[in-house]
Structure formats: C-alpha cells, structure tokens
Amino acid sequence: MLIQKLRLKRGWSQQQLAEASGLSVRTIQRIEAGQPASVETLKSIAAVFEVDFSTLDPEKQMATTEIPLNEKLEAEAFEYVRRLRRFYQHCLRYVLVNAILVAVNLIQAPERLWVLWVIGGWGLGLLLHAFRVFGPDWMLGPDWEKRQVEKRLGRQL
Q: Are residues 58 and 24 in the same domain?
C-alpha cells in the first residue's frame, strides 16, 4: 500500500513508476495488490522514491508493529477505489460490446432480437456487480462475511 500511496502522491501512473524503476508494469500491479516483492525490486522502487528500503518492506513492518488505524483506513480506501475502477471498466465493456451486438443483430436478423438475451443476462451480472460495489454492507459485505465465518466456526474471531 505504501508504494501505491507514494506513487499517487507524485501523480504517477503505474507505467511511469515501472519506467522509472526499470520494472514491468505487471510487477508494480502485483506489488500494489499486496503480493510479496523481491528485495531487488523493493530496492529499485526505494531508489526511485528516495526512501530507505526498510520502509517499503511490509514483512519487517508487520513483524515490528501493529498496523495503525489510519493505514487500515487507507488500505480500505485503495481497495474500494480498485473495486470501483473494475466496475466502471465492466460498465464500459457492457455498453461497447452490446452496442456492437445490437448493430449486428439489426443488420443480420432484425425480425429476431436475440441480442436482448445478451443484454438482459449481462445486465443482470452488471447489476450484481454494482450491488457488490455500492450496495449495503449488511448484504454480502465484510460484516456479512465475518458473521458467516463466526457462524461456521461457532465462535468469535
């Protein structure tokens, strides 16, 4: 999360950070998603941001201290923005692909509107995606997940 925070403070894209550090964009994406990074990778990123390597090593930080509340809130905010971006991308694909399919359907077989099945089915999936992003937490949100795990375990977490 710290790497993403540093990148956003400078107004850089993942592509720009990758070019500055000599890493691939996919590597930057993996690190920002929370996957572990090699020491060499972290040193390369630390050099770009001109910070000490140990500040970017999440394993050392977790071993020494508990994560502060503000960092937890930042992590939740970053995760929400990632989900929101995926939803918007989903909406864009839905509109573009269905526009093309409507055109194809109207050109090839205007008497039979098979495209309505695609629009309806995919639209239902999009609606469920929207509900997961914007819907109330009591329904399939983190609190619901916690209650289900506790119910399954038969005890509090």
A: yes
Residue span of the structural domain in which 21 resides: 2-64
Over residues 107-136, the pLDDT tens digits come to 999 999 999 999 999 999 999 999 888 877
Query: Is residue 125 assigned to a domain?
Result: yes
Name which of 78, 84, 68 is nearest 134 in CA terms.
Answer: 84
Q: Is residue 105 part of a domain?
A: yes
pLDDT (tens digit, 9 = 90+) per residue, 64-88? 456 677 777 888 888 888 899 999 9
